[in-house]
């Protein structure tokens, strides 16, 4: 029987890619800082550990926003919420554009993080409109949008800051965010009447229910911790890399940091295949295999850190497989309790960004204390923990199916 919109299992390819593009634009706002972090620090006169507060508080504020706001996706229209949060992001970027002090810039970035919720409504939105056997492929497509957004943010910010001015990066980001927000009413559909007639929990009941839901589904907690380590490694390494390459020892400009991000484009081709692999052998088994490949790449960061060209090897390795870990983590969450998927995703993403916020600061602090060696050592220690947890979940999954 063909899929129909009425069946709740229809999502056109055009809409699927539109959702991926929206998520990419919104997520990109947190990554413009990566290649230009040394220039922003110099402009405001702060050291590496202090400038690390910008991405750290952005991610932690996002975790808080996810906890307080994302559960509303199980009560209110995703369309209305996405528009509201898009407006919040646009205003926050405006605050960053007009900031005249580090404290003002930090405040704008932190508020921006709090409102960066819409991209994390989209997987639950899409999961209710696709057949279960396409969940991995569609999740991978949305992840692809995120990858492209991050890629464009880092490359674009590095080039603009090198040849123009880093402030222009945020001017253009605010304009792009405003245009994206205006497009949302034409892309997202509202809830159907049948869903609106269902009994609704109060806001406090929705938020409070998150803890009981996570207790019922402990695999979401483990997946969230694994992704916190995975995303934390990504942020810590890239922030450390920006400081390392623009240091007096290496002597490169911020545009070079941005150009390195181009190698992440390989993930745009590999991630859908990793999603298909997870559909075939199971999310937990795929995640363990991917995590081993990632650890091998991370182990090369310090030995190859003295050469820009050799650093390309671990960068490609990490950027190729890292998004696959997120895809498998989301699959384990989105396959559970359809009526509570948004809240389960809340727990998963909240853990992810709490870990990412801590790792963002830890990565720049490790660089401040021990340079590139300290940053690389931190990333490897986190990778060992990630592999161990992934192996444990793979063993449990195999035991359930045997």
TrEMBL record:
The chain crosses the membrane at residues 14-34, 46-69, 81-99, 105-123, 135-161, 167-188, 220-244, 256-274, 308-325, 345-363, 369-391. Gene3D superfamilies: MFS general substrate transporter like domains. Residues 9-400 form the Major facilitator superfamily (MFS) profile domain. This is MFS transporter. Keywords: Membrane, Transmembrane, Transmembrane helix. It comes from the Bacteria. It holds the Pfam family MFS_1. InterPro entries: MFS, MFS_dom, MFS_trans_sf. GO terms for molecular function: transmembrane transporter activity.
